[in-house]
């Protein structure tokens, strides 16, 4: 079982300004290009819900906005729903940190707070590199990353 001390952390540098990264994180018409075809829905205000919806409004994950500082920081709870093995796991937390880096943007994601969430931890560890690589590719080229 995953413990509360386990965390996933990734950094990526993207050749676009911070506001473009924020837009890509918060606009469902963009997330569908890099987040496994899912569109994000939220008001991005502290306390409001957030969900990633796939085809037919299938909920891949849901949570609540804990912090939202446009262009800088987004923190949410994260309840995985994409298959039966993860739906039993307790929610965790995802933090997106956006900072300027010369003519690029440094994006850091930290996924932590795994309490008795082994399946969510293991599947997220495999999913985040794909999502971040796809986000970078999409923002820099305008084309979705084709993995399979």
Order of helices and strands, N to C?
EHHEEEEHEEH
Indicate the percent of residues in helices. Answer: 25-40%
Shape: globular
| Helix-strand makeup class | alpha+beta
Biggest β-sheet: count, sense, barrel? 7 strands, antiparallel
What number of domains? Answer: 1
Question: Strand order across the biggest sheet?
Answer: 1-7-6-5-4-3-2
Low-confidence stretches: none
End-to-end distance: 29 Å
Count of individual helical segments: 4
Please tell me about this protein's structure:
By secondary structure, the chain is of the alpha+beta class. The chain has a single domain, classed as Alpha-D-Glucose-1,6-Bisphosphate, Chain A, domain 4, CATH 3.30.530. It is built from 4 helices and 7 strands. It has a 7-stranded antiparallel sheet. β6 and β7 form a beta hairpin. The protein is globular, with a radius of gyration of 14 Å. The termini are far apart.
Question: What key phrases describe this protein's structure?
Answer:
30% helix, alpha+beta, 7-stranded antiparallel sheet, 36% strand, 148 residues, Alpha-D-Glucose-1,6-Bisphosphate, Chain A, domain 4
Summarize the structure in short:
This protein is α+β, with helices and mostly antiparallel strands and 148 residues long. It has helices at 18-26, 28-34, 84-87, 118-141, and strands at 8-14, 39-42, 49-53, 59-69, 73-80, 92-101, 104-112. It has one domain: Alpha-D-Glucose-1,6-Bisphosphate, Chain A, domain 4, CATH 3.30.530.20.
């Amino acid at each position: 079982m995953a413990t509360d001390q386990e965390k996933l952390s990734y950094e990526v540098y993207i050749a676009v300004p911070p506001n473009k990264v924020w837009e890509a994180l918060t606009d469902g018409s963009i997330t569908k290009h890099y987040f496994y075809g899912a569109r994000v829905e939220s008001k991005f205000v502290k306390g409001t819900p957030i969900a990633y919806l796939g085809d037919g409004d299938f909920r891949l994950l849901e949570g609540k906005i804990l912090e939202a500082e446009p262009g800088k920081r987004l923190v949410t709870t994260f309840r995985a729903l994409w298959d039966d093995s993860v739906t039993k796991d307790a929610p965790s937390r995802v933090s997106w940190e956006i900072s300027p880096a010369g003519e690029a943007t440094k994006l850091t994601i930290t996924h932590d707070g795994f309490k008795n969430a082994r399946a969510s931890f293991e599947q997220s560890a495999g999913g985040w590199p794909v999502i971040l690589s796809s986000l970078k590719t999409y923002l820099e080229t305008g084309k979705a990353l084709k993995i399979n």
